[in-house]
Write a structure and sequence with these properties.
The structure holds two protein chains of two kinds.
Chain A (H helix, E strand, L loop, with lengths): L1 H29 L5 H10 L3 H11 L4 H25 L6 H9 L3 H9 L6 H28 L2 H7 L2 H10 L1 H5 L1 H19 L8 H19 L28 H5 L28 H12 L15
Chain B lengths: L2 H25 L7 H19 L10 H16 L4 H21 L1
Helix pairs in contact in B: 3-4
């Protein structure tokens, strides 16, 4: 039963993944990869930003060290999510089950699991993973196949699609959070510096991204340290979902999003604002990072909205 | 692109991604106390993502000008908090239109 419930809870995620992975598939083919390569990548990696950055580096014939470093930096957030998920998992979860859960630790799956008031069982998480993973792989396959038949001019236009999504992730929270605005503006300035300045521009793009990304995050961490845990104490339980509510699905999709359902980007707002659903969980600050992580890859799909894109 | 190279590099990516997920899930049961480190991990995705996009987005299509228009469209729509897909598709459409104009004008 728990498995089925998980599958259902994964449906909104699947819809969001379909669109994003479709774009990933198209863009890989546009870069010159065979149709099965992005599919293979989605099957084995199951992550958003990481796949995009990695395939980019492979296409640009970047060095192996660069690839490793990029993956580490982009995926570092998963370690933090894993720590908080680990505390929420049922104590009965075996090592083998944990090994499998780890594969499905994406931003959205994590967010859905953390919304549950009760402990998360292996069955439930496996259900969420099943649905969302199918969406991820299927979308990639469709995108990769479509990429093979689209005319050149459309492929060129699609080259900007993923960048567009990333812009839609980083820009909106800048309006409400000075911290994010600072990080984003610093990153833009540094990145342009590395791109256009003599000598500095000789550094390959992968390393430049790592240096600029870390430096701007350090600037943010120094000037805008996140609030302490007590700020997170649940003062709003309306968005959380109890174990007893297992059979009650009608609000599931809606619960996934913050109040402002018209806009998935809301979900990527910096957590310090403490507004969104995850904070209702009285867990710990690390939960907040999901929203952030939404950034890294995926925003939370919203029901009834064609914008439920995620990465 | 050599097939073998692509395959093992994708597998390498998968391995690192998986390690990032699994190590703390299995080993760590405590939460991170350092406020600085928590802040860093929180802001890192924004920093990395932004650095990936700018200014590379300007060279993501076959013409600088089409990409410039696409980028501006994406930023404006994002400021109005449109959804990811709306922004991405609008930027794509803008690029497409500009490239049509460039090609046939």
């Amino acid at each position: 039963m728990r498995y089925k419930q998980g599958c259902k809870d994964g449906i909104p995620i699947m819809l969001g993944y379909l669109t994003v992975s479709f774009t990933f598939g198209v863009s890989c083919v546009a870069k010159g990869f065979k149709w099965w390569m992005p599919v293979f990548c989605s099957l084995t990696n199951f992550t958003g930003t990481g796949q995009f950055a990695g395939m980019d580096l492979i296409a640009a014939a970047g060095s192996v060290l660069e690839l490793i470093a990029t993956m580490l930096v982009i995926n570092a957030r998963y370690s933090l999510m894993a720590i908080s998920l680990s505390q929420k998992l049922s104590p009965k979860t075996t090592l083998g089950q944990r090994l499998l859960i780890a594969f499905g630790l994406t931003d959205e799956n994590y967010a859905v699991a953390m919304r549950r008031q009760c402990e998360v069982t292996f069955d439930y998480y496996l259900g969420v993973m099943t649905t969302s993973f199918s969406g991820w792989v299927l979308g990639t396959l469709l995108g990769a196949l479509a990429g093979g038949i689209l005319p050149d001019i459309l492929l060129s236009a699609f080259g900007i699609a993923l960048y567009g999504m990333f812009i839609a992730i980083v820009i909106p929270p800048c309006r409400s959070s000075k911290a994010v605005a600072t990080v984003v503006l610093s990153a833009i300035a540094l990145s342009c510096l590395f791109y256009y300045t003599p000598y500095l521009k000789n550094l390959s793009s992968g390393w430049a991204v790592i240096i600029c990304g870390i430096s701007s995050a350090v600037i943010g961490a120094i000037f805008f340290p996140v609030k302490d845990d007590e700020n997170n104490a649940g003062d709003d339980n309306s968005n959380t979902e109890s174990c007893d509510a297992e059979s009650d699905n009608k609000n599931k999709g809606a619960n996934l999003s913050s109040d402002d359902a018209e806009n998935t980007c809301e979900n990527t707002d910096i957590p310090a604002e403490n507004q969104t659903y995850l904070n209702a969980e009285n867990t710990q600050n690390t939960c907040e990072n999901t929203q952030n992580t939404a950034i890294g890859t995926k925003a939370i799909p919203t029901e009834g909205d064609d914008n439920n894109g995620s990465l | 692109m050599a097939v073998f190279e692509v395959v093992w590099k994708i597998l390498l990516m998968a391995l690192i991604t998986y390690l990032c997920r699994v190590l703390t899930l299995v080993l760590v049961r405590k939460k991170i106390k350092s406020r600085f480190f928590r802040s860093l991990l929180e802001y890192l995705p924004y920093g990395v993502l932004t650095a990936m996009v700018f200014p590379a987005v300007l060279y993501s299509t076959s013409s600088f000008y089409s990409a410039l228009v696409g980028m501006i469209v994406a930023i404006i729509l994002s400021l109005f908090k449109r959804g990811l897909l709306t922004v991405a598709l609008s930027a794509t459409a803008a690029v497409f239109i500009v490239e049509l104009i460039i090609r046939f004008a």
